[in-house]
Amino acid sequence: MFNAITLSQIFVTDQDEALDFYVGKLGFEVKVDQDLGFMRWLTVCVPGEPGREILLEKPGPPAMDEATASQVRELLAKGATGGWIGLTTDDCRKTYEQLLAKGVEFTQEPTERPYGIDCGLRDPFGNAIRINQPVRVG
C-alpha cells in the first residue's frame, strides 16, 4: 500500500535560526526553500537521503489561527509538542564530540543501551532529537 515515509514535520519559531541549526550545526542539506506567499515551505534532509524530508514549519496560517499558533509556540518552548527526530550514526561518541565542538547543547551524553549507544539533545525550539548508534547484529 505505501512505499516510504517521505515527509515529516516539526514546528520551529524561526526558520532562519532553524536553518543555522539543522544545516550549519547538524549538517543537514536544504531540500526545498520556497516562499509560497502564505507560508515558507522549508525542508531539510540528511545528505544522501533526499527521499526523506523534514518540514521546518512555523506555527501559524494557513494551518492554524494566531491564537492556536501562540499556544503551540508556548508548548514548543517547553518541549511539550511531542515533536522529535531520531537519527542514526555509525559512531555516536564521535558524532557527540563533533556536535559539542559546534556548540550543540546536549540533554544526555552517549549512553550504552541494549539497542545501541544513544544521546539526546533539543533543537533551539524545544524539539527532542535522539542520536543512535544501533547494535551491530551478526
From TrEMBL:
<dbReference type="InterPro" id="IPR004360">
    <property type="entry name" value="Glyas_Fos-R_dOase_dom"/>
</dbReference>
<dbReference type="Pfam" id="PF00903">
    <property type="entry name" value="Glyoxalase"/>
</dbReference>
<dbReference type="InterPro" id="IPR037523">
    <property type="entry name" value="VOC_core"/>
</dbReference>
<dbReference type="InterPro" id="IPR029068">
    <property type="entry name" value="Glyas_Bleomycin-R_OHBP_Dase"/>
</dbReference>
<feature type="domain" description="VOC">
    <location>
        <begin position="1"/>
        <end position="134"/>
    </location>
</feature>
<protein>
    <submittedName>
        <fullName>Glyoxalase</fullName>
    </submittedName>
</protein>
